[in-house]
Design a protein that fits this description.
The protein is 74% helix and 0% strand. It has helices spanning 14-62, 81-103, 112-126, 132-150, 158-183, 187-193, 197-222, 229-258, 264-267.
Length: 268
């Protein structure tokens, strides 16, 4: 009879399983501790980096742009509305003055002071050594010169004023020729037939046309929105000179027509 001996199975020690559990528990504890340490290190660093970034952005807002236009720079305190309006008005007035200086053409006045100076110079030039009669005759020539050099100061009305001044100048030439014709009339012809009725009629015709021109000139000056008070006053003074000259010519024409001579009534 054979006896069968079965192989022995290894007997597990009860202490081996407990050792493995303790090892795994210790391992997870170490990992958890590492994670906690990493969190403690990274969270303050991230907060510090965020603070630095905020300071950098704020500094960028307060720093002027490289092109020097001051974009992003700290703005000065806002001014009161009244102060802003006064500042804007001053800038506008300075700009208008500069524009007038830039667009001023040679031979024209850029402002009221220059206009008055140019009128005085021309008056001294044309009246140098002249008697009272010549001075009166030159009054219209002086006014034409004043309006010619001062027309740009009228702004939008300058073109219309130049047109009237051109007509006024042509009228001055016509009345000057008629007046010279009256003064040079032959003594015999004046004694027999009186004054030069034709020359007197020319003068009266020009006076009527000039009266309409004077009315229009007064309108342009009074409605001039670009004129300062001094410029308006100077131009009105010149209009008054034109009116005085028209009155003198009117009296001259009337006297010439009243002079009939010996036979003038027969032929008139």
């Amino acid at each position: 009879m054979r006896t069968t001996i079965s192989p022995e199975r290894p007997v597990r020690s009860p202490f081996r399983s407990g050792t493995r559990g303790n090892y795994m528990t210790s391992r997870w504890t170490s990992i958890t501790a590492l994670l906690v340490i990493l969190l403690l290190i990274t969270v303050p660093a991230a907060a510090a980096a965020d603070g630095v970034l905020s300071m950098t952005i704020q500094a960028g807002k307060n720093t002027p742009a490289p092109d020097g236009d001051g974009t992003g720079a700290q703005q000065p305190p806002a001014q009161a509305p009244g102060v802003q309006n006064q500042s804007q008005a001053g800038i506008l007035q300075q700009t208008q003055t500069q524009d007038k200086a830039r667009t001023c053409q040679p031979g024209t006045a850029c402002n009221a002071s220059q206009l008055r100076h140019m009128i005085t110079e021309r008056e001294e030039l044309i009246n140098a050594g002249a008697d009272q009669q010549v001075r009166e005759t030159n009054a219209l020539r002086l006014a034409v010169h004043a309006f010619t050099v001062g027309a740009p100061l009228l702004g939008n009305s300058s073109g219309a004023m130049r047109g009237i001044v051109g007509q006024l100048n042509a009228s001055a030439q016509a009345t000057l020729r008629a007046e010279e014709q009256i003064q040079n009339r032959n003594v015999i012809m004046r004694t027999l037939f009186g004054g030069d009725a034709g020359a007197a009629a020319v003068i009266q015709q020009e006076i009527a046309a000039n009266q309409e021109r004077i009315t229009e000139m007064n309108r342009l000056i009074s409605e001039c929105g670009d004129c300062d008070p001094e410029t308006r006053q100077i131009l009105m003074e010149q209009v008054a000179l034109v009116e005085q000259e028209q009155q003198r010519l009117r009296e001259l024409a009337q006297q010439e027509q009243a002079d009939t001579g010996l036979f003038g009534r027969i032929f008139r």
